[in-house]
Hints:
The complex is a heterodimer of chains A (527) and B (284).
Chain A: H1 2-12, H2 14-32, H3 35-40, H4 45-73, H5 76-81, H6 87-117, H7 125-150, H8 156-173, H9 182-186, H10 200-232, H11 238-262, E1 274-278, E2 281-287, H12 294-317, E3 326-330, E4 339-341, E5 350-354, H13 363-378, H14 389-401, H15 411-419, H16 426-430, H17 432-439, H18 441-459, H19 461-473, H20 480-488, H21 491-499, H22 503-520
Parallel strand pairs in A: 2-3, 3-5
Antiparallel strand pairs in A: 1-2, 4-5
Helix pairs in contact in A: 1-6, 2-4, 2-6, 4-6, 4-7, 6-7, 6-10, 7-10, 8-11, 12-13, 13-14, 14-18, 15-18, 15-22, 17-18, 18-19, 18-22, 19-21
Chain B: E1 2-5, E2 8-12, E3 23-27, H1 34-41, E4 52-54, E5 57-59, H2 64-67, E6 70-73, H3 85-93, H4 101-110, H5 124-136, E7 142-145, H6 154-171, E8 174-179, H7 182-188, E9 191-196, E10 199-205, H8 206-212, E11 213-219, E12 231-238, E13 241-247, H9 250-255, E14 263-266, H10 269-277
Parallel strand pairs in B: 3-8, 3-9, 6-7, 7-8
Antiparallel strand pairs in B: 1-2, 4-5, 9-10, 11-13, 11-14, 12-13
Amino acid sequence: MIRGLIEKELRQHGLALLFVLLLVWAGVVVILQNRFLHTAFGTPFAALRFLLLTFVPLACLVLGQALIDSEYQHKTQLFLEGLPLPRWRMIAIKYGLGLSLMLAAVAVVLAFAWRRSLVADAVTPRFLLLLALRSVCYVWFMWSLCFAHGFMGRYRFLFGVIAFVIIKSSIIIQYLNFGVIGPFELIGDRFAYERYLVPVTQLAVTAAYALFWTVTGLMLGLARDATISTALAQRMSSREKMLLTFGVVAGVLVLGGYAERSKTPSPVLLPGAVETTRGGVQVAASAAVDQPTEEENAALDRVARRVADELSVVAVFLRCEKMPPVFIIHRRDLKPGTLEDGGIKKEQGVMVRANLTAKEFKMDTLLRWIVYEALARKSLGRLNLERNAWVLDGFTNWWLTHRVSLGEDSDELRAAIKAMPQDFSAHDLDRWLTLRQNAGKEEGRELAATGLRVLASRHGDEACRDFLVSVLGAEVKKDPRAWLCDVFNPVANRFRKTTGTSLEAFVAEWRDVLRKSSARLPEETKP
Amino acid sequence: MKRHFGKVPAVDGVDLNVHEGEIYGFLGINGAGKTTTIRLLMGIIAAEAGTISILGETTRRTSVAQKQRIGYVSQEQNFYPWMTCHALGRFVGSFYPTWDKAEFSRLLEVFEIPEDRRTTELSGGMRAKLALSLALAPRPAVLLLDEPTAGLDPVARREFMEIIVAQSRQHGRTTLFSSHLIGEVERCADRVGIIHQGKMRFEGRLGDLRDRVRRVQMPVGTAFAASGYFETWRDDEYDGVRSLALKGEPSAWTALELPEGAEITPMSLEDIFIGCVGSRRVRV
């Protein structure tokens, strides 16, 4: 019975067996022509490692497809089931045959490598045993994985794609080092050289993986009278194909995007820049000219220090450990008062170009620009979202003026009154960018800044600070957690938690204050 | 026996008996549970409840030793496409201690199947005959055939069934074959079992079935209600005639009092089968 089955498998899968023979032949050739290997590694066992890493997974995959998948795909397992043969024996023979073939192939190569190494090396039995142990365990793992993979029927390609994407994205984002995972550590860099130490942990981990995949394969093949594997072997419906394609494409895009975002950007280097550091704040100022004048050098130094001082105070106020690095480029050719974005990546920091020596240059304008951009980039753009933007807008203008009291007839107050809609409510804060577009950018920002002033005066400075810390100072993750945090803990929630008042009630207060201020303005200056 | 697939009861308490040496016709429409029952009998799938008794040995699931005494022909012939008929015989023969190589060759010759031809090069009829040769070569005591003539043309079907009957009669082989073709069952079977929605609806000799199930016809509007001794299988109205298919013991039929204008007529097996598994009431 067993002999008949083995004969059938050997005759049926001649091509797959040819591939295994090719594997052996390739191993022998690599060992014989090892001039390069000898120079590079100094031992023929390096060829065995090369074989284990490349050909063995491929050969296991081919054998798994041939022995398992082809049987179920052509439904010939139904023919076998009609014969007086227990199902477990049919599967066990396939498993045993595949494993034996792979082990035999690797044993031949190992024997050849051993013979070859005898010429120049003293190979101890312990070393040979270690090599054999590592190889056997690794081959067992690889074959078990491919054996289980063979039962996955129409999902085996999907499994392959997922595995590829995971491996690829892990390599890109360096999140997972495959070299430290049991089976791969077992045939790692030390494979061809370690003569004494038995890698007990790696052997145990690899054996555990092998056992897991063996049990998974057997369960898929035997559970519920093989109805699972038979169902899996059926062709995909067009709807299933469409859904899976969509899922794979979406998965690849999401993972690709995530991997891209997870990459650490290269730091920005400004040769000859004036660099100032205050705690977690780094500011570098440089002139985009061949030979800066003394006045320009002085301006660079002054601006760098002032920006660093201000940003470090902002960081302390918002309880941030670190702020994005700031790069200031002085350009003589820029129009006075112009601030130009340097166009570096969010993760790299903030870069601004300005004519620092122009008479019209205003430090406050530069500070406001840098504070705004630094906080926006620190939040990875989440503070630029419509529902969050009013806090950043308000803070930028409020920060520079909150230490001085504004008069009842100040320009800031008039701008805020002008920007406030008739029926100003919390709903307008959710549509902030629209409101700001209708009212004007500066007016909109002043309206938001007035809100923070009202918050500080009515609910206390600490409540105002706590609220700003919760929105502007919070660490933002570089993954979907940032979005989840925004959805489940929106600004309105944070406002209620930190001030004890609902945002709706506060906006009503804010509106009343502005209406009263508006009423007190002289008729001729009313906006 | 009971067996579910998900929430669907494929076999829901089937109880059938096939006597030694008889040919048993297993009738049922598509999806009635015939294939599942035969797969349960072959031990290919396990029953959730119930026992199987084959050749005096009772088990929960048919053992390998029992399977070696059963010849089985499945509905679809999933042979290895690369094998020739000879190679297939050699492969299958390695699983049976009683395999008769000479008998296999003789059967191939009788069925005019070339030994050196690959299984993919055979017609549907030849594949069915090859499957039968493989099932008969170990000289089994029991033959289980799951719709063996499905997909064959009428000539091949008739020829195939004649071979089965001749083989079974000649060797006194107990044979169970499933089919949804009434003519085939009527011609070949000693006894029949009708399965519907996973349950046995009838089991017995064809004569008994005809004695028990009869048609009562009367003009529409005639007052008639079958007594408790009868089971109403159908109640149709067509062209002003009410037609009832009733099942009852022969003694109940003798005692039945009919209203004026009503008459009892015998039914063909096809009518009985449709009465048993078709919709209960049709009005035209």
